[in-house]
Amino acid sequence: MKTVVISGTSRGIGKELVLLFAHAGFEVYALSRNKRVVLAYADGHPNIKALEVDINNWDSTITSIKKELTKIDILIHNAAAFINKPFSEMSYEDMQSVYHTNVMTPYFLSQGLVQIMPAASQILAISSIGGVGGSIKFPGLSVYSSSKGALNIIVECLAEELRDREIFVNALALGSSETEMFKAAFPDLAAASQPQDMAKYIYNFAINSVPLVNGKTFPISSQNP
Ligand SMILES: NC(=O)c1ccc[n+]([C@@H]2O[C@H](COP(=O)([O-])OP(=O)(O)OC[C@H]3O[C@@H](n4cnc5c(N)ncnc54)[C@H](OP(=O)(O)O)[C@@H]3O)[C@@H](O)[C@H]2O)c1
User: Fold this and answer.
1) For the segment 170-216, what is each residue's pLDDT rounded down to a tens digit?
2) Domain range annotation of the chain
3) Whose CB has fewer CB within 10 Å in the chain, the N or C terminal residue?
């Protein structure tokens, strides 16, 4: 049975990914700050293991994961912190906390988990179209979008560093999907997709991209935003 570890699974796209992978026969380790919520929607599915962790504490998250499993085939960095605030009001603490969750956490969780990732496994970062150079930008999203830009470059760098171990590293730069995060960014707009459909795309990419794709960021977007 292949094993997938997914962060940020209490709601939105992460929740839909957990359900898709579990129904497809993967053993799914769902990382969340709220295990109770995951257990409720998992509804006893034998393939879903909920781990209550604060991913921002890398060491304890890595220890908890390694206690439970000895092999990861797919590691999906889906969790993200979001802030919508004008440049003039953004504080050091705002930026520090978003960069911690969106940039440093995927970096250091990957560093601590690659030891248990075999050849042909992959790290998949869920990024944002706003983090792609040249895409349309929106007021208030400077910290969030730039954190995703950093994540995209980390993906390129790690793909090179992990090439010898045959661990593949890619990012999907998502366009809009109807979740709590989208509502916080664009309260008056409708998103281009539902989280179930976005999750399907991510699932298909995850199971089909190795060994054809490595070190790439793909925009998955049809409109702005
Ligand atoms: N929705 C969109 O339009 C859109 C567009 C572009 C990119 N994305 C990306 O898609 C991914 C999923 O987003 P979503 O739209 O599904 O968002 P969401 O519904 O707001 O869910 C985000 C998840 O991230 C975790 N999270 C939130 N803040 C966190 C923090 N400070 N520290 C640790 N974990 C935190 C939560 O996990 P737990 O509560 O389980 O811990 C939550 O389930 C994110 O990487 C996001 O940047 C989304």
Assistant:
1) 999 999 999 999 999 999 999 999 999 999 999 999 999 999 999 99
2) 3-220
3) N
| Residue 193 pLDDT | 96
Question: Cα(47)–Cα(54) distance, rounded to whole angstroms?
Answer: 22
Q: Beginning with the edge strand found earlier in the chain, give each strand of the sheet holding 3-6 in spatial order.
A: 48-52, 27-32, 3-6, 74-77, 122-128, 168-174, 217-220
Under CATH, to which class is 3-220 assigned? alpha beta
Quote the CA–CA distance of 51 and 160 in Å, as a whole number: 30
Rg (the chain; Cα; Å): 16
Which atom of ligand 1 approaches the CA of 54 most closely? Answer: 33
pLDDT one-digit tens code per residue, 181-190? 999 999 999 9
162 alpha carbon to ligand 1 midpoint, in Å?
26
Compute, in angstroms, the gap from residue 63 CA to the centroid of ligand 1. 23
Residue ranges lining ligand 1, Cβ < 6 Å: 8-14, 32-34, 55-56, 78-81, 101, 126, 128, 174, 176-177, 179-182, 191, 195
Task: Measure Cα distances from 137 to 70, 85, 97, 134, 146 in Å.
Answer: 41, 14, 21, 8, 10
pLDDT in tens, 80-110: 999 999 999 999 999 999 999 999 999 999 9
